[in-house]
TrEMBL record:
SUPFAM superfamilies: PFL-like glycyl radical enzymes (SSF51998). GO terms for molecular function: cobalamin binding; cobalt ion binding; nucleotide binding; ribonucleoside-diphosphate reductase activity, thioredoxin disulfide as acceptor. It comes from Micromonospora musae. Residues 164-699 form the Ribonucleotide reductase large subunit C-terminal domain. This is Vitamin B12-dependent ribonucleotide reductase. The keyword Disulfide bond applies. Gene3D superfamilies: 3.20.70.20. Pfam families: Ribonuc_red_2_N, Ribonuc_red_lgC, TSCPD. Residues 744-847 form the TSCPD domain.
Length: 970
């Protein structure tokens, strides 16, 4: 698998034979302690505890993972421990080989890095290697940073030592190359990673084959690759297949490529309306094509200028570059924006900007990216990632730990470069290129939390200046350490060929750093140190070169962000001010993000006001009208979703602020409201080019059919859009027809005989196998009578409504308390009196099929529950405390103790003093679902394929808070 061994000579990706020598005699890194204490092992500085990790499906309570007695520091959250245990611990559960402690996991990885560092001459002495290992251990233990997932999966195990999460492939205009693409992509998916490819070398459907026939074009070959990705995804990989497909804007098939996914969305709507299951993960969605890839168009400055001037643009053949067709650039740009408005694809990649920042143009152009668009480099290459937790560097006084941040970047970059020495790769071509160019991707998470905790709005000049300064400091330090490593173990093999362009890009980064206008003392201090790092690093690089052709990217940090207990991922703002937190021993609770009170204190609010504002947020999910909060501070608490959400251009401006200081690009999707127009999409894509971004993707809320729709008719702002084609698409998007979910032939049911005011009858209720009422039959009077016929018709109407998704509680609220004869006493101990037969029937159904919280809102209780309430009220009255209102609004768990002589005695399981603290918790399993419950709005997010909870955004991907699964690479 392409392992580097000893001092052998290797051919680099540019074909030059080079010698991979160990460090020069007497050279090597001298390592100083930063986080650790001499004579004390990092493990001895923390308090450890044993926990049981039991992962259940929150919908049905079934256990899908169980490992008891795992060991973690007390400071680690339940969620972080659960995800690390289930995702990263190696060995079969229940065997002696199974890892059971975080110590084992960290040691497995760090020991491998230290051993390889010593073997390949990175350290001046064994003592330096030991300090390096202790520092890495401390940082991982305290969640200061994390490597990307493949490191935790593979390093130190018998498996191939794959350390990279991001891959770029290449496809030429030949059937052999296309079939190799299918195979190589499949191998990458099998390992749980993602890849991207540019198909622009494949001749178009408007060109001829050598045999004289017409070529099928790249879009046709996308079908086969899409089917392969869908099959491998469902074959048990550690995560869903993630892939990116790119086509150059001057390719003759560009218009067909642009509309592929939008056309499939039309198909999804038609099939859904015909009754097929077209939700994400639905049984029939597999019949739709092109759903396993993100699509992007590579646009050039020439094209964007033609759009600006409303001019013509040439589409060129792939064989000889001849002009096949001249089109109107603005019309094609509108088609791209229209398709993105409809289904979020395609995104844009700005080709000239990407290649203007390319350190190795003499080797080849950058043509493609990984699935999330943050890794942009040579074809047939890979990148391993690691991300720093920025909140670990925020001081209590609001300052930033500049010196510790610099030292931490040094440790992480050194470790990442060492990993390339022993790493394995899925193909030899990728291995050769990666070893020759040593692409790294250091990044960070928790930027949004850092800005909020500092009292800075995400969409503000102050916020952007801090973000830009931190990013510049990170990349400047990374390249400075890379230059130092080049002086010890040599520059990357392709450096000699690319020395001048590499130096030019370093000067561009340094010049961009000089353009930062720091706002405030914190940003000023960070930018001052960044300037020093760029100056020093470029001076060292001029002498020794650089060890790495690329140093930094901003990745989604999905799973590893949860591992580090980060509130925000990558460069993202906070999702919302309330979140879903799992508790030790099971259960969960709603909490206000801990960055909120810290931000309020940073803004100078006294503690009593902080408590009042936090309580307001807990009740409402936002800060509007919070007691004592100044309106000018509202913007500090703006989030990606909610009552006050950040405007789309706010996201674009943040990306533009940090892009000049990133070697690669930024994984981020710009969320747009549902009422956004096609013109709004055009503006975002155009401004992205003007502001110097390398890649940009948008997502308009509810644009995908596979997501639940939150409204039933078009927003007025959209409906008034003058473009007829836009109005037509709006109608298609918002049209919604419910789908009937029929019960199986064999279903569980129960029949109850009842008597209301002397009138007798039978109620038969049938439910779905996975629970939930789906059918009701009522039998009263003799067959053939008028009343029997009316009741039969009523039963059918209710049953069909239930199967089309009408909630049972809706029927209960409408039919209970309906008064007509017969009425009066019943023979049901839980419903002693009924105002009518309908009143009784729906009270009985509520008791049998609705949870306590829903029934409590409707005032429907069992006899035992009413007895428990009376007992609680009596005890409260005896103690002088009036808890009647509290008990009525809180669910009281009831224990029934069997007494042979006196019958069941109901006893509250909760102490009466605790009753007031219990609130009906919404039925949720993630922060996204909690946000939906708080705001009363549907959030666009896919369900996790592993555990079924709703995922939350992480860059241009999604991550599941329940199990750590992602929809992309992290």
């Amino acid at each position: 698998m392409g392992r580097v061994v000893g001092d052998r000579a290797d051919k680099g990706g540019d074909g030059v034979t080079t010698s991979r020598s160990r460090s020069k005699a007497g050279a090597g890194l001298k390592v100083e302690r930063v986080w650790t204490t001499e004579g004390v092992h990092p493990y001895d500085e923390v308090t450890w505890e044993r926990r049981d990790v039991v992962m259940t499906n929150w919908r049905d309570g079934s256990i899908n993972f169980e490992q008891r007695g795992v060991e973690y520091p007390e400071s680690w959250s339940v969620n972080a421990a659960n995800i690390v245990t289930t995702k990263y611990f190696r060995g079969a559960v229940g065997t002696p080989e199974r890892e059971w402690s975080l110590k084992q996991l960290i040691d497995r990885v760090v020991t491998t890095y230290r051993t390889a560092g010593e073997e390949y001459g990175y350290f001046a002495s064994p003592a330096d290697a030991e300090i390096f290992a202790h520092e890495l251990t401390w940082m991982l233990l305290h969640q200061v940073f994390s490597f990307n997932s493949p490191v935790w999966f593979n390093v130190g195990t018998p498996s191939p030592q794959q350390v990279s999460a991001c891959f770029i492939l290449a496809v030429d205009d030949s059937m052999d190359s296309i079939l190799d693409w299918y195979k190589e992509e499949g191998l990458i998916f099998k390992g749980g990673s993602g890849s991207g490819v540019n198909l622009s070398r494949i001749r178009s459907s408007k060109e001829l084959l050598s045999s004289g026939g017409t070529a099928s074009g790249p879009v046709s070959f996308m079908r086969g690759a899409d089917a392969s990705a869908g099959t491998i995804k469902s074959g048990g990989a550690t995560r869903r297949a993630a892939k990116m497909v790119i086509l150059d804007v001057d390719h003759p098939d560009i218009e067909e490529f642009v509309v592929t996914k939008a056309r499939e969305e039309d198909k999804i709507r038609a099939l859904r309306d015909a009754g097929f299951d077209m939700d994400l993960g639905g049984a029939d969605i597999v019949s739709v094509q092109y759903q396993n890839a993100n699509n992007s168009v590579r646009v050039s400055d020439e094209f964007m200028t033609a759009v600006e001037k409303d001019g013509g643009f040439d589409l060129r053949g792939r064989l000889d570059g001849a002009v096949i067709e001249t089109i109107n650039a603005k019309k094609l740009f509108r088609t791209i924006s229209q398709a993105a408005w409809e289904c979020a694809d395609p995104g844009l990649q700005y080709d000239d900007t990407i290649n203007d920042w390319h350190t190795c143009p003499e080797t080849g152009r950058i043509t493609a990216s990984n699935p999330c668009s943050e890794y942009l480099h040579l074809d047939n290459s890979s990148c391993n990632l690691a991300s720093l937790n920025l909140m670990k560097f925020l001081r209590a006084d609001g300052g930033f730990e500049v010196e510790k941040f610099v030292k931490s970047v040094e440790f992480v970059i050194t470790a990442m470069d060492i990993s390339i020495c022993f790493a394995d790769f899925p193909t030899e071509k990728i291995g050769e290129t990666t070893r020759a160019y040593r692409q790294l991707g250091i990044g960070y998470a928790n930027l949004g939390a850092l800005l909020m905790a500092s009292g800075l709005p995400y969409d503000s000049e102050q916020g952007r200046s801090v973000a830009a300064a931190i990013t510049s400091l990170m990349t400047g330090t990374a390249y400075r350490r890379s230059a130092e490593l080049a002086g010890i173990v040599g520059a990357y093999d392709g450096y000699a060929r690319n020395a001048e362009p590499h130096k030019r890009v370093m000067r561009k980064h340094a010049a961009a750093n000089d353009e930062i206008k720091p706002a405030g003392t914190v940003a000023t201090a960070i930018q001052r140190e960044a300037t020093r790092q760029w100056t020093q690093g470029n001076k060292i690089g001029d002498k020794f070169g650089w060890r790495n052709s690329q140093a930094s990217v901003l990745a989604p940090t999905g799973t590893i962000g949860l591992m580090m207990d980060c509130d925000t991922t990558g460069v993202e703002p906070d999702l919302a001010l309330v979140k879903f937190k799992k508790l030790v021993g099971g259960g969960s609770m709603q909490i206000v993000n801990q960055t909120v009170p810290r931000a309020l204190r940073s803004l100078g609010y006294p503690e009593e006001q902080v408590e009042a504002i936090v309580e307001h947020i807990a009740d409402h999910g936002h800060v509007v009208d919070a007691p004592g909060l100044k309106p000018e501070h509202y913007a500090v608490f703006d989030c990606a979703m909610g009552e006050r959400s950040i405007a789309p251009m706010g996201h674009v401006r943040m990306m533009a602020a940090v892009q000049p200081f990133i070697s690669g690009a930024i994984s981020k999707t710009v969320n747009m409201p549902e009422q956004a127009t096609v013109e709004d999409v055009e503006k975002i894509y155009f401004e992205g080019w003007k502001l110097g971004l390398k890649a940009l993707a948008i997502y308009r809320d509810n644009c995908k059919v596979g997501q639940p729709l939150s409204v039933a008719k078009p927003n007025k702002a959209v409906a008034e859009t003058p473009t007829a084609e836009v109005q037509k698409v709006v109608e298609k998007v918002v049209e919604y027809r419910p789908v009937r979910k029929r019960l199986p032939k064999k279903r569980p049911s129960e029949t109850i005989s009842f008597s209301v005011g002397g009138a007798e009858g039978y109620l038969t209720a049938s439910s779905y196998p996975d629970d939930g009422l789906g059918e009701v039959f009522l039998k009263m009077s003799k067959q053939g009578s008028t009343l029997a016929g009316v009741m039969d018709a009523f039963s059918v109407a209710i049953s069909i409504g239930l199967q089309y998704g009408v909630p049972l509680e809706t029927y209960v609220s409408k039919f209970t308390n309906m008064r007509f004869e017969p009425a009066g006493m019943t023979d049901d101990p839980d419903v002693r009196m009924a105002a009518s037969v309908m009143d009784y029937i729906f009270r009985r159904l509520a008791l049998d099929f609705l949870p306590y919280e829903r029934r409590a809102e409707l005032g429907i209780f069992t006899a035992k529950e009413r007895a428990a309430q009376l007992q609680a009220e009596a005890e409260a009255e005896a103690s002088g405390a009036d808890l009647t209102a509290m008990a009525a609004s809180a669910p009281v768990e009831v224990k029934v103790v069997e007494e042979p002589k006196t019958g069941p005695v109901a006893q509250p399981a909760l102490e009466t003093a605790d009753v007031a603290a219990v609130k009906p918790a919404p039925s949720v399993g993630s922060s996204t679902e909690l946000l939906e419950a708080v705001l009363g709005q549907v959030a666009d997010a896919p369900l996790c394929f592993t555990c079924g909870t709703k995922m939350r955004p992480a860059g241009s991907c999604y991550v599941c808070e329940g199990c750590g699964s992602t929809s992309g690479c992290s």
